[in-house]
Amino acid sequence: MADPIFGRLLTAMVTPFDAAGKVDHEAAGRVARWLIDEQSNDALVINGTTGESPTTSGQEKVELIRTVREAVGPDIPLVAGVGTFDTPHTIELARQAEEAGADGLLVVTPYYSKPPQDGIAAHFRAVADATQLPILLYDIPHRSGVPIAEATLLELAEHPRIVGVKDAKGDLASSGRVMARTDLAYYSGEDNLTLALLALGAVGLIGTSTHFTGAGAARMINAQVEGRHGEALTLHRALEPLFTGVFATQGCLLVKAGLERKGLIGPGVRLPLVPATPAQVDAFHALLDDAGM
């Protein structure tokens, strides 16, 4: 199994906004501490899609990294989402994140333009060559429009700073083949597929529901890694309604609704996102209540 370079459990953290639509740094610090102290996270992903990164500026991203670093201290790894569909812009964000104190980078496949595989490989190599930070590739074809092909992953695994994959491809057989042939650290990018990917050699999870399920997910991951497979399966089945229920609409909307109920953040999101509907919020709160969360 590959080395879990950033630990085994990470959460793609939401970005709180205040009533005026500005980043709420005080709330961001509270959420970061909640994820570490109460939800057993080993590291955090900042400025990912769950953090509404398409709607935050480069300066807001830098300031958020600094805020979270101050909140969690120097020993918690921070992985910064920097991927865009524009290679020079992605490189600029990567360098800014490195200067702001990030420990790693999450770089999504260039989206919308659907580049060919040699373009995808060139994009990732250009970003990796422009920084000294380790990089996780984010393979999420249902958002980016195109997968990272197996051959491309095998090629990119040879780069010394491309160290892992956040895998939301949903193709377990393909992911298993890449893990068998490389040292890439695979992190599940689909909460409900974590146990299956762990069985194939993945090292952990970068989750969304883990704003609430983190402590249980950490126990599930550790049980599977330590060979207590029955315990891991029992935990998976208990957590599965929340693993999937958080995605009844865009994941960050229900996370924000749940965190608002806990008094950690306000309700704000940025267009084109809008708050979850009352029915969606009630259904999600019922799942949290049923799980004792």
UniProtKB/TrEMBL annotation:
Q: Which key words tag this protein in UniProt? A: Amino-acid biosynthesis, Cytoplasm, Diaminopimelate biosynthesis, Lyase, Lysine biosynthesis, Schiff base
Site (Part of a proton relay during catalysis) residue list: T49, Y112
> Which terms under GO biological process does the entry name?
diaminopimelate biosynthetic process; lysine biosynthetic process via diaminopimelate
Binding, pyruvate: T50, I206
Work out whether the entry's keyword set contains Amino-acid biosynthesis.
Answer: yes
Q: Name a GO molecular-function annotation.
A: 4-hydroxy-tetrahydrodipicolinate synthase activity
Identify the enzyme class: lyase
Active site location: Y138, K166
Task: Specify whether Electron transport is a keyword of the entry.
Answer: no
Biological pathway: Amino-acid biosynthesis; L-lysine biosynthesis via DAP pathway; (S)-tetrahydrodipicolinate from L-aspartate: step 3/4
Short name of any one Pfam family annotated for the protein = DHDPS
Per the UniProt entry, the Enzyme Commission number(s) are 4.3.3.7
InterPro entries xref list: Aldolase_TIM, DapA, DapA-like, Schiff_base-form_aldolases_AS, Schiff_base-form_aldolases_CS
Instruction: Give the CC-aspect GO terms.
Output: cytosol
* Compartment annotation: Cytoplasm
The main place the protein resides is cytoplasm
Q: Which reaction equations make up its catalytic activity?
A: L-aspartate 4-semialdehyde + pyruvate = (2S,4S)-4-hydroxy-2,3,4,5-tetrahydrodipicolinate + H2O + H(+)
The entry assigns this protein to a family as follows: Belongs to the DapA family.
The record's listing under PANTHER family reads:
4-HYDROXY-2-OXOGLUTARATE ALDOLASE, MITOCHONDRIAL, DIHYDRODIPICOLINATE SYNTHASE
Quaternary structure, from the entry = Homotetramer; dimer of dimers.
Q: What does this protein do?
A: Catalyzes the condensation of (S)-aspartate-beta-semialdehyde [(S)-ASA] and pyruvate to 4-hydroxy-tetrahydrodipicolinate (HTPA).
Protein name from the UniProt record: 4-hydroxy-tetrahydrodipicolinate synthase
Q: Which organism is it from?
A: Naumannella cuiyingiana
